[in-house]
């Protein structure tokens, strides 16, 4: 059984959206927090994570990389609009577009490094880890800001009973 790139990213973009809504409802000011002064704040981390889903899937589907950013709008409404358009785009990509990607090489940049990677290496070793890095930063900043999110919010699979504490186990 294979999980397609679009299925993987759509699942976690929905998780990202849910976490962002929890942040906004808890304390919108958490959106401006960062883990360290030289790191992006929460909403910018979300924006980069969203962008990596398109940087990962478009080249593998034989398409130019698209972006649904609304300029410099790094606000909750701007991020939600970007998420909505990105998820719609990914949902519309046919699985067949990923057939034959083993023959594809992807050229990209990583910071100031120029990369030319076989599709599988690009996806598994570069794009997916970068998406999860930025997605995990959103989660970590939310937690650091006191937002009541947990592992079940992060992955959508874990469940714990009400009042459960890891301190007691």
Could you walk me through the main structural features you see in this protein, from its secondary elements to its overall organization?
The chain has 169 residues and is mostly helical. The chain has one domain: Four Helix Bundle (Hemerythrin (Met), subunit A) (Up-down Bundle), CATH 1.20.120. Helices cover 53% and strands 7% of the residues. The chain contains five helices and two strands; from the N terminus they run αααββαα. It has helices at residues 5-27, 42-60, 76-92, 119-144, 151-155, and strands spanning 105-110, 113-118. Strands 1-2 form a two-stranded antiparallel ribbon. A hairpin with a 2-residue loop joins strand 1 (105-110) and strand 2. The radius of gyration is 17 Å and the shape is globular. The chain starts with a helix and ends in a 14-residue tail after the last helix. The model has no long low-confidence stretch (mean pLDDT 93).
Protein topology:
Elements: H1 5-27, H2 42-60, H3 76-92, E1 105-110, E2 113-118, H4 119-144, H5 151-155
Antiparallel strand pairs: 1-2
State the main characteristics.
Four Helix Bundle (Hemerythrin (Met), subunit A); mainly alpha; two-stranded antiparallel sheet; 2 strands; 169 residues; 5 helices; 53% helix
What's the short version?
The protein has 169 residues and is mainly alpha-helical. 53% of the residues lie in helices and 7% in strands.
Largest sheet: 2 strands, antiparallel
Shape estimate: globular
What is the residue-mean pLDDT, rounded to a whole number? 93
The name of the CATH architecture is: Up-down Bundle
CATH topology group: Four Helix Bundle (Hemerythrin (Met), subunit A)
**Radius of gyration (Å):** 17 Å
Helix/strand-derived category reads mainly alpha
Q: What's the assembly state of these chains?
A: single chain
Helix content: 40-55%
State the strand order across the main sheet.
Answer: 1-2
Number of strands: 2
